[in-house]
What we know:
- This protein is an alpha/beta fold.
- The chain folds into two domains: 2-12 and 67-182, HAD superfamily/HAD-like (Rossmann fold), CATH 3.40.50.1000; 13-64, no CATH class.
- It contains six helices and eight strands, in the order ββαααβαβαββββα.
- Strands 5-4-1-6-7-8 form a six-stranded parallel β-sheet. Strands 2-3 form a two-stranded antiparallel sheet.
- This is HAD superfamily hydrolase.
- Keywords: Hydrolase, Plasmid.
Amino acid sequence: MKVALDLEGVLANSIDYFLDQYNASRGTSYVKSDIDSWNWVPTVVGFDTFDSIVNHGWRNHSSKIQYSVENLPANLPPLIASTDLHVDIVTARTGVEESMKQWVTTAGIPYDRFVSIDTQPKPTLQYDVFIDDNPVLSQHLSSDQTQYLVSQPWNENTACDGEQVRRVPSVLSAFEQFSTWAE
Ligand SMILES: [Mg+2]
């Protein structure tokens, strides 16, 4: 079974880094829970502004990008290592791959390949399972693909059927549930 493990919003809390930078420069006071839909970024701040701040963060301040889950380096690597899954890190961010790889390595997260794609939907890649916070990814799944939707404020209203799209509170829960999924 091949797993596509998303980076931002699943492993890396890059949104809080973005908000810190954005608020400091614009005098705003947005918090993560304000981002209540996938359209918040393009509608409120614009994709270009978002991408440029986050890319700058990866390139120059990656140590300021926190983990999405407390104690991620202690808890996730043993869970991944306990499976025999093929796990690739698959991100839709391009241009800062070396910094992102270094961040993942520093966290001690084992993976097979690091894959960055630009505009093509992730489900066009040959993976069985996607661990991803993207609420529109499921629109592109083929019938034999499954998404573990990692809960975030921007996907809290996304419908999940509990079969093809399964909501999990964190990436840790996703890996804990793989044994059940495989039965
Ligand atoms: Mg993501």
